[in-house]
Amino acid sequence: MKIFVLFAFAAFAVVVFSGRSEVSQANGRYSTGSIDAPTGVRSTVNLYATKVGVYWDTVRGATLYRIYRNTANDANTATDVGTSAGNYYFDLTAVAGQSYFYWVRAENSVTSSSFSEPASGRRANGNVFPGPFPPLDPPPSPSGNSVTAAKASLGKALFWDEQLSSTNTVACGTCHRPEAGGRDPRTLFGDLASRNPGPDGTPDTFDDIFGSPGVPKNNADGTYFDSPLFAYRPQVTKRRAPSYLNTGYSPNGLFWDGRATGEFRDPLTNEVLIAAGASLESQVLGPPVSDIEMAHGGRDWTQVAAKIAAVRPLMLAEDVPGSLRNWIGGRSYPELFEEAFGTPEVTPARIAMAIATHERQLFSDQTPLDRWGASIEQLTPQEMNGLSLFVNKRCIDCHTGSLLADNEFHNIGVRPQLEDRGRGAISNNPVDDGAFKTPTLRNVELRGPYMRNGQFQ
Question: May I ask the CATH class of domain 18-122?
Fold first, then answer.
C-alpha cells in the first residue's frame, strides 16, 4: 500500500504536453514580399501564478514573433508586450485574475505579417512560496545555440527522420516517445525483442537488461551479418533509454553515466563550439554513429551529414503533422538548414544543434505538482499521503527540486557495481563505480519499466 501511495504522489507530476511540445506548425508560403500570419496561437488559462504562456506554430521565413495583448478583443488597440525568436512567450506583466486576448505577428528583416487569430489567456491567482518542489521554469539556452522557431522545427524533422540511421529504420523518436513519458514504449520487461542478455551473455538470467531495439549488425554497403547475441535481429542496448523530456536541465551531463557533457565539440575538428550548458548538443552525437543504436560498423559523422544533405526530409515517415509538413513545404534539407542557420551547409554540429533546440523546448511545466507549488490548487488526500511518505521515507534526498531529481550520480545497489561501472567508467574514479544519474520523476507514471536495466515494473 505504501508503494502505491508513493507512486500516486510521483504520478501527479505527470503532464500531457501542450501543442508546443509536439510539432511546430506553419502556413507554408514565403516570399521576400510577404509573410503569413502565425497559426495555432494558444495561451494558458490559470496554469501559472506568475505569467501567461503564449504559444504558436512556426511561420516559414519568420525570424521574430511579436506578441500583443488587450483586455478587449480588438487587435487594433492591443499593446505590444514583447518578442520571441522561438515558438513561445511568457507574459510576466499580466495581472492575476484578469482575462486577456493575445495576438502574434511574424516578422523578418523585410516585412511583417498581419495579426494572428486571438487566443484567450489568464494568469492564475496564486503565490510561489519557498518549498521542496517549486514550479518549473523554462530551461536556459547555451551561448552559441539560442532557440529559434525555425531551428526547432528543423530539429523536429531530424528527430523523427528514420533516414538519420544507416538502415532507414530508426529515428531518435523511435526510442524516445512523448506519449510514453519520453522513454521507449517498445521496452517491455520479459520481452524477447527488448532483451539484452547482460554481462554474462546468457538470456533468462538475473543480469538481463531490457533496453531499446536498435539496428541489426550491418555494413556500409547495406548488407547485414550475424550477431553472436542477436543473430539478424535488431540489437538491444545495454541500458534502458532515459526520457528525453525535460533534458534541458542537465548541469552534470546526459546519459545514465553523464558522458554527454556541457562542453560541445565539433565531431569533425574537435573544436569547442559551446563551452558550457550544451549537454543536449553533446548527447545527439552518440546514437547516429553507434553500431547498436543507428549505425553500420565504422560509421562517422561525415557520412551521417552527407546522407542527410542528400535525402528528402521525412521521406519515410507516415502521418507527418500538417504543421511540420507545411513548414517543410517540399524543400530539401539544405534549404531548411539555410532558413535555420543562414547558409545551406548540412554539418554534424548543425544537426546536433537543431535537434538539441527541439529537445530544449520540451519541458513539462503545467503539471498538478507545479500548480500546487504555486498555490493554485491543492493536492488530493491520496497525493498528500504520498507526499508525506515521499518525504519521510527520504525519497526526497535524491528526488528533490523542480525536477524531482538532484542531477547527481548514486549507486543504489540495483546490480553488482562491476557489471556496469556507470559513472565510474567516465570519471575513472572507483568510488563512482555502479553509480548512475538520478532520473527525474516528472512523467514517471508513463515510463516503466524502471531503473537503468529495465528490471523494475
Answer: mainly beta
